[in-house]
Amino acid sequence: MTDPTERHDPARLLRLVLRIDSGSTAVMGVVLIAASSLLVSPTGIPVAFSVGFGLYQLAGATALFFVATRPTIPSVLGWAVVGLNIVSGLGCLVVAVADLVSLTTFGIVFMIIGAMVVAVYAVLEYAGIRRMIESGGGRAFKAR
Asked: Most buried among 75, 106, 129, 137, by the most CB within 10 A?
């Protein structure tokens, strides 16, 4: 059963999306690191790039989880998450189209899908922040 105080948390949607984003980001980071040598042939992503990107993903997942579990979420942290997701999505698109890494067609599609997933999270997190602001009107939102 859900704690009744959670139903009245203006940050409930944002917390949920942050937790899901954190979990999927962590899984992707682990896959990029653990399967880095297996990804070279189908994607064209070099091992060093895959491991580095995986470490970035794990750091991001940790930060997302940290924000989601704060008793009070300052809206500035929510906006920072949205901004970093936008930057990450744009980074994936740049890697996909700028020929910085010699990606295969599958590798290009992989990066574009990654950018799309990040964009969806950014939109959902934006919606969560807007809901917090509309319900509380403040800059930080504490779970009640």
From this structure: 129
Helix (H, G, I), strand (E, B) or coil at 72: strand
Contact 118, 87 (CB under 8 A): no
Longest Cα separation, the chain: 52
β 140-142/72-74 pair status? antiparallel
Q: Report how far apart the first and last C-alpha atoms of the chain are (Å, whole number).
A: 17
DSSP state of 140: E
> Residue 122 — φ and ψ, nearest 5°?
-60, -40
- Other CB atoms within a 10 A radius of the CB of residue 59 amount to 12
Q: What is the mean pLDDT of each run of 10 residues along the chain (144 residues)?
A: 58 94 97 97 96 97 95 90 96 93 95 97 95 71 48
- Which token pair is 94? 């740049």
